[in-house]
């Protein structure tokens, strides 16, 4: 048997660790290290064998290898022996893209999600849920009546709620129902009035105010449904209208939700500078229980670059990493910017409709240039393949001007990326972070309505990246859906839709590759692979215990795996022993929310 698995140092223990002083020794289960493959090679054992034990001291991994050696060298009088009882021990999951504060919002307002995450299936259910929120403790304190998560693709009739529908909730208070994509929403008549949207209001650049009676001049009477830049002011007003005491709980709720799915590092993926400031104020009071990586909205960062203070180092669990660009919308909402027309355009639009960009080319290029100039990591929301093409053009120009470097620029979502574009990502060093969960959530919708068979089977094309030896990641983008690590894994391995169809079997990946996408690959995306992402000596003891190993069970069984325990730097954070300690300092604005991008 081995003397202990430590592939980089060859040592039995971590830096500065004294044998016999381990806090805990894990044993008795499948230990999936994600170190160089599906499992480390143990000297003297069969190829592919996994280590028997992991020892942790002071929040770091000090030994990985044979149980007898662990007990001989690392067991002390206070050492806890943790019997996994056949369960699996993996590196803690790392969220490559999400909105942890938005997840807390999701946990606070009316829940409009449909099956399998909720029970909303028609407009009447939306109205009922919003009324219930309005009459509840948080709703009574809120200026707006607001809910999140409806999906027109899943509603009876396949239509968005309109102003008339939401007037049934209230005619005295503004009402906002946020689409699950967080790129669209519907408001009632009072909401339109407060937003000053009328038949005389032109569509804003990069957005659409959908119209009902188009005979009302000059532009048609708004029907309440708002897209992209027309929607964002509504979400901003509605969220700020939630009482400060309730907004102050967004972060704590978001972190607890993430921990319950096995995440030990999370992201706030499009923060306003005010939000970053509030997060820093929170972290200054006491360490955050999970690591939080923040990306600032690019336009704001450029206006006040001195406030970004991007750093590879955490301060009490928080760091700013760079900037976020938003180049288009969502395929499920049919606002993503495509190279070829949608199979079925939204009602009232021509057959050549391809969606639309969010930023003009020169603006997008200037944002990428600014990121490179300031040393900020650049991540970009790109769902449609034309938006991906825009990102490629901007990165190519900015790289030529600034010279190539290890910047780890990341394309977020990349749902409709062509194989030619994945090849360009490889050449330019862009990391694709795929939205693999969508194969389940919207795969049927893409296949039947949005993209059609030929394009839908290649959404989130992980195999094209693997074939080129590329690092890719996969994310949940909560609050678009629950921050489910298991859904990320299952979606990649099975690519099974709600209706049971396998959407592009040729793009399915192994359980090992799926696990890497939210462990070591995600650590690499963040530039943290030396400290996180695998179970290796010297790394942080960020760990997750699962009911079964997603690397070794049949693909169809992954969806039934449960999160048993989440451990951050050696400390259990799920199940919670007590309420997660996230301080709320006095005198802070606590605008802890930013719209999803």
Characterise this structure.
α2 (100-106) packs across α9 (250-260) and α13 (385-402) runs parallel beside α14. Among the domains are: 109-241, Diaminopimelate Epimerase, Chain A, domain 1; 261-533, TIM Barrel (Alpha-Beta Barrel), CATH 3.20.20.140. Helix content is 29%, strand content 19%. It has 597 residues and is α/β, with parallel strands linked by helices. The protein has 21 helices and 23 strands. The radius of gyration is 24 Å and the shape is globular. The protein has an eight-stranded parallel beta sheet with strand order 7-14-15-16-17-18-19-20. The N and C termini lie far apart (50 Å). Mean pLDDT is 91; it is low at 1-16, 37-47 and 584-597.
What's the short version?
The chain is of the alpha/beta class. Among the domains are: 109-241, Diaminopimelate Epimerase, Chain A, domain 1, CATH 3.10.310.70; 261-533, TIM Barrel (Alpha-Beta Barrel), CATH 3.20.20. The chain has an eight-stranded parallel sheet with strand order 7-14-15-16-17-18-19-20. It has a six-stranded mixed sheet with strand order 8-9-10-11-13-12, with helices on both faces.
Radius of gyration: 24 Å
User: How would the global form be characterised?
Assistant: globular
Q: Could you report the average pLDDT, rounded to the nearest whole number?
A: 91
CATH architecture of one domain: Alpha-Beta Barrel
State the CATH class of one domain.
Alpha Beta
> Number of DSSP strands?
23
The name of the CATH superfamily of one domain reads: Metal-dependent hydrolases
Fraction in helix: 25-40%
Q: Structural class of the secondary structure composition?
A: alpha/beta
| Discrete helix count | 21
Strand order of the largest sheet: 7-14-15-16-17-18-19-20
| Unreliable spans | 1-16, 37-47, 584-597
Tell me the span between the first and last alpha carbons.
50 Å
Beta-strand percent range: 15-25%
């Amino acid at each position: 048997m081995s003397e202990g698995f430590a592939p980089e140092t060859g040592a039995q223990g971590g830096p500065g660790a004294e044998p016999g002083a381990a806090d805990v020794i894990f044993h008795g289960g499948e230990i999936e290290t994600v170190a160089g493959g599906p499992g480390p090679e143990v000297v003297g054992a069969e190829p592919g064998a996994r280590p028997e034990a992991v020892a942790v001291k002071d929040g770091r991994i000090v030994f990985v290898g044979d149980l007898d050696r662990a007990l001989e060298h690392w067991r002390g009088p206070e050492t806890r022996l943790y019997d996994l009882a056949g369960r699996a021990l993996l590196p803690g999951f790392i969220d490559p893209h999400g909105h942890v504060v938005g997840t807390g919002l999701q946990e606070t307002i009316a829940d409009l999600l449909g099956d399998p995450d909720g029970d909303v299936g028609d407009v009447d259910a939306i109205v009922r849920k919003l009324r219930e929120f309005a009459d509840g403790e948080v709703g009574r304190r809120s200026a707006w009546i607001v809910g999140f998560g409806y999906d027109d693709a899943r509603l009876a009739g396949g239509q968005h709620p309109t102003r008339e529908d939401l007037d049934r909730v209230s005619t005295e208070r503004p009402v906002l129902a946020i689409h699950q994509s967080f790129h669209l929403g519907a408001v009632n008549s009072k909401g339109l009035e407060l937003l000053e949207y009328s038949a005389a209001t032109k569509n804003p650049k990069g957005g659409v105010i959908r119209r009902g009676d188009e005979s009302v001049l000059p532009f048609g009477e708004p029907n309440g449904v708002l897209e992209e830049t027309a929607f964002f002011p509504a979400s901003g007003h509605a969220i700020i209208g939630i009482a400060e005491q309730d907004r102050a709980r967004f972060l704590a709720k978001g972190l607890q939700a993430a921990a319950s799915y096995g995440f030990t590092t999370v992201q706030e993926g499009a923060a306003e500078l005010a939000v970053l400031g509030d997060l820093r104020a929170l972290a200054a009071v006491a360490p955050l229980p999970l690591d939080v990586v923040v990306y600032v909205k690019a336009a704001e960062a450029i206006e006040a670059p001195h406030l970004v203070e991007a750093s590879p180092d955490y301060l009490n669990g928080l760091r700013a990493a760079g900037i976020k660009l938003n180049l288009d919308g969502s395929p499920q909402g049919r606002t993503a910017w495509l190279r070829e027309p949608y199979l079925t355009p939204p009602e009232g639009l021509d057959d050549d409709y391809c969606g639309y960009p969010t930023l003009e080319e020169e603006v997008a290029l200037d944002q990428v240039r600014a990121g490179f100039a300031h040393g900020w990591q650049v991540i970009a929301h790109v769902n449609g393949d034309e938006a991906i093409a825009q990102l490629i053009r901007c990165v190519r120009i900015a790289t030529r001007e600034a010279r190539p470097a290890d910047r780890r620029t990341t394309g977020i979502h990349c749902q409709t990326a062509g194989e030619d574009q994945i090849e360009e990502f490889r050449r330019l060093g862009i990391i694709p972070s795929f939205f693999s969960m969508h194969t389940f959530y919207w795969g049927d919708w893409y296949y039947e309505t949005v993209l059609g068979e030929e394009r839908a089977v290649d959404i989130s094309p992980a195999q094209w990246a693997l074939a080129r030896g590329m690092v890719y990641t996969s994310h949940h983008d909560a609050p678009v859906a629950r921050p489910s690590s298991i859904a990320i894994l299952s979606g990649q391995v099975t690519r099974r839709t709600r209706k049971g169809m396998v959407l592009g079997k040729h793009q399915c990946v192994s359980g090992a590759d799926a696990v890497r996408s939210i462990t070591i690959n995600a650590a690499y995306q963040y530039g943290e692979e030396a400290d996180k992402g695998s179970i290796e000596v010297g790394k942080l003891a960020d760990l997750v215990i699962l009911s079964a190993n997603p690397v070794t069970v049949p693909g169809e069984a992954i969806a039934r795996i449960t999160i048993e325990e989440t451990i951050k730097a050696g400390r259990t954070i799920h199940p919670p022993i007590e309420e997660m300690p996230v301080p709320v300092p006095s005198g802070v604005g606590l605008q802890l929310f930013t719209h999803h991008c």
